[in-house]
Amino acid sequence: MSNKLYEEKKEEVKVEPEEFLSAGEDKKYITFSKDKTKITYNKIEKTYSFKKPEEKVRASFYVELIEKYNYPENRLDTEVVVPRRTPSDKADIVVFEDDEKKKPYLVVECKKDGITDAEFKQAIEQVFGNANSLRAKFAAVVAGHTRTVFDVAGFKPSEREKNVISDIPPKYGVAPKYRFFKGDTEKDLTVVLKEELIRALEKSHDTVWQGGKLAPTAAFDEVSKLLFCKLRDEKSTKMGEYYKFQIGTHETAEEVYERINSIYLKARKEDSEVFKDDIRLDPKVIYAVVEHLQSINFNKTELDTKGVAFERFMEDFFKGKMGQFFTPREIIKFCVIILNPDRSDLILDPACGSGGFLLNTLDKVRKEAEKNYDEREAWEHWHKFAMNNLYGIEINDQIARVCKMNMIIHDDGHTNIISTDSLRNVEEISDIHRSFKKDYFDIILTNPPFGASVKSTEKDYLDKYELGAKVKKRNSQKTEILFIERCVDFIKPKTGKIGIVLPDGILTNSSLQPVRDFIMERCHILAVVSLPQFAFSHFGAGVKSSLVFLRRKGENEILDNYPIFMAIAEHIGYDATGRKDPVNDFDKIYDEYQKFRKRPKSYEGC
Q: Is the separation of the CB atoms in 312 and 200 below 8 Å?
């Protein structure tokens, strides 16, 4: 069965480490065995296992020293024995000043990407011991995209901050003040793959979290602030200028903090809706995060790559604790293709959480634009849609910020995300943002909160709802029931459509017949798709649910008896533990629904 859930881009952007390995192979600096399990450094005739991630880092950096920094191949060596240290202690890479390899110039310690801050600090001490013993002038620790270079000769042996330099001096020259310049082929930022981006974000979170000094969600907030600065810096830096989100030669943590904070204060002033409070981190913590992120080009990294990376990063820290704010991607995609929004539609999610429904709608519009227009036209097409057609409401202020950051990562649309209670009086919501009004939106896609009750003693709006206390006196009502009415309020009469996740009790409990009567009076029921019990279990919720698709009736519209498309999804692309399931019933259900739409009265099912 072909996957009809709109196509993902398969193309991966080639990134710098892979490019150096490829160049090294082409120019015969390195050679791999046929099965890629061994690597040989040809000039020094040394062979090592290529199975270890550290070796991949070393091989890439070895070639980079030759290709990018112009060091002679014959002056490089690996596994150099360090005098006056234990016999097993060897330097990963040494660059020498002379052809006889008697005068060590640069000592490099290579580690796999993703090591902890403590492991990185340990590697720094190791490289300093090696560099001092070898009497080298410079030292570097390289762990994937995190790297630090030191001027060893010009400072006291105990110095670890003031002697940091921006980059390795090119061919025995002078270290530049800054390493990264916009528009310079050799010195611009690097586009990365998904797993590398995830590791960079995770390293940043671990640095900020500081082993538990901050709550994970508070740490996430602080990382988001710094990521906000990083994205702003990339966009605001002019061609030929150096980026501000980086560490310069001999800069202290306080100097780096001042520069990053100035980016933040300016960005916050221009866009006060994302963050309202100051950065609350020690300068040394900010310094370490900048080390992790400074080399990465977020804005040019492929949109799907950074979207999935940020989503994975979010889920790791919020799933379980705040699982109600996340709807599984497979369910979201199915809802989006069933209602099939296009660029002219106004889209609302009144319980938007981290923004899954809105962003998948944006992805659909973007990919259609990229198929039908040239690059510039497509960019304008979907950016206008992001800025003008996507709206969200989220009651939890922290998750609303997460949603805004998620949209900024996806190249925007965050200006129409507001943090308030979707169930309060519509006029009060309109006071916050005038586009939130009744009878206005074309499509609503939402997964409202289940189980909580709104009490008349706590909220003053219960008697404004027909399903609340307006018609029948009651002291409380379930949030999911009130959300049904609110969605009908927001959607356009006659043409507006709703895709909503509802607990099965609303569809089956005899006591909730008035709710079903309300739905049938106000809406044309398009389809009901039953989900398996486990659909939300690995997100911290286990309520048996269904997807309900509706069209709001026009004023005085009366429908005769009509067929309703109904289906049961047993396999939905993942299992009860969250692991991927190769079987996905949504594909076939989508096909059957298209057949039903063409001939609803003669449709016989499958």
A: no
Selection from 39, 33, 68, 67 nearest residue 52 by Cα:
39
Q: How far apart are CA 84 and CA 81, in angstroms?
A: 10
pLDDT tens-digit series, residues 300-314: 888 778 877 887 777
Which residues face 418 on adjacent strands?
Answer: 393
Please state the pTM of the whole predicted model: 0.79
C-alpha dist (Å) from residue 97 to 110, 138, 142: 20, 12, 21
* Residue 200 sits in the same domain as residue 240: yes
Place of tokens 């969250």: 578
CA atoms within 13 A on the CB side of 330: 22
Q: For residues 583, 584, 588 and 591, what is the CA-based torsion angle, rounded to 10 degrees? A: -140
User: Are residues 156 and 51 located together in one domain of the fold?
Assistant: yes
CATH number at residue 31: 3.90.1570
Strands 453-455 vs 476-478: parallel, antiparallel or unpaired: antiparallel
Residues 58 and 88 in one domain: yes
User: 403-412 pLDDT, tens per residue?
Assistant: 888 888 887 7
CA 242/CA 256 separation, integer angstroms:
14
Please name the helix (run of DSSP H) or strand (run of DSSP E) that holds residue 415, with its range, or none.
Answer: none
The domain containing residue 148 runs over which residues? 16-172
Beta strand pairing call for 138-143 and 104-111? parallel
